[in-house]
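writing this on my phone so excuse typos. first protein, seq and then structure
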Amino acid sequence: MLQLFRRKAQAPGLTGLALGDQYFTLAHITRQRDQVLLDRCVQVDVRNPQQLRESLPAQVAQLELQGSTCNAVLGARDYNLYLIEAPAVEPDEMRAAVRWKIKDLIDIPVEDAVIDIFPVPDDAFQGRSRMLYVVAAVKSKVEQLIELCKSAELELAAIDIPEMVMRNITAKFASDDRSLAFISMKSNGSTMNITRQGNLYLARKINTQLGPNAMDSLEWEPLRDRLVLEIQRSLDYYESQMAQEPVSRIMVAPRGADTEALAASLNDAMSVPVAVLDYAERLDSPADISIETKRTGMLAIGAALRSDLSLAGG
């Protein structure tokens, strides 16, 4: 998403930072040609913004990440994502035209928003107007994130959204030569991407909420049915409106002890194969970084996998 001017970083590799409601996650990845190493990854609980401002610099120092290039991820409540018809203007006028076009779509004054855009692949919506995605982020939240990284001595190079860092996970750990859906299911709502050959075609929010014990509930079957309906609607949109081949498989991100059972239950209910994408098992790291830490740190890891920000030799 938003790429920022930065000074030359003092540490090789790329640091990913993701903020949750009451925690933050740091992940640091170094690359040697095609090899990727997660050499640091932690999740730290924080009770309030003040504790976050105190804990993040201390953790960055403890991990010796001061001066490292950083890609930070916006929180789910701090932005909205829109798919709109691209204005018929010159490329250098596009952002200004988009800002004007979406002013009545967003729920905050447009002057209080940071707007960024990224294109839909050219073969989507064949025969129709060109479409693009618009990210409308709350300016104050972006400014707070920039200040937070500055106080922690992280060299902030870009700010991403969860959909884009999820794309980085599938690009590295899943074969998407044919269309692939990847879903991260959380208690406060879920995110679904459809990618092909590393390109993000469709990003959708799934409103069905799945708590950590969702499958133990007597309401699991109707809950699953609602979830399946939402997923199927997105698959249908991808095929009919975006004129794409059917999705070949659906991959579920690790979410806790019920991940395998959840994927199996969805597999039983859908016509498309459903399985778990357990990238954590395949991501090289020191022994002191547990599989569970890698699973819960998905967004920070995905941010650190952004290849266009990594430093040569790192």
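second protein below, same order as before
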Amino acid sequence: MSSPETDPLALEQQVCFALVVAARSVVALYKPLLEPMGLTHPQYLVMLALWQRAPLSVKDLSGRLQLDPGTLSPLLKRLEAQGLLVRARDTADERLLSVSLTPAGVALRSDAERIPEAVVQRLGMKVADLRELHTTLTGFISRTHAIDSEQDR
């Protein structure tokens, strides 16, 4: 049996494993910060997109979050039930469903503004290191999307 350093199938050497564990760890890191706001991590991502730009069509929001509409729809339904957003037919194009923030959704942003700094503090990492990680991950995502696009041809 080979050592983990030389075994091409060693779990510890797999990028996919490191990414999955990192993703779960990030969600766990955010959980206690988001619970007082009544949000899950996926709901927080929806709110981030809408705080940046609203209203958005469900299609545009789905694209920004890189989620299929079937995954996004239940998130929107729960956020709407919490009174944070409203879904309505677009007045310019009845085929589109538009997502807008309610006053409560807009107001929640002030509570959320403390989260990025709290995450940095909990991680104990330098902001520059986190920016570098973000750049690396963004490049990784772009490359995987390029591969997906080539395979779709």
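The mean pLDDT is 95. thats all i got for now
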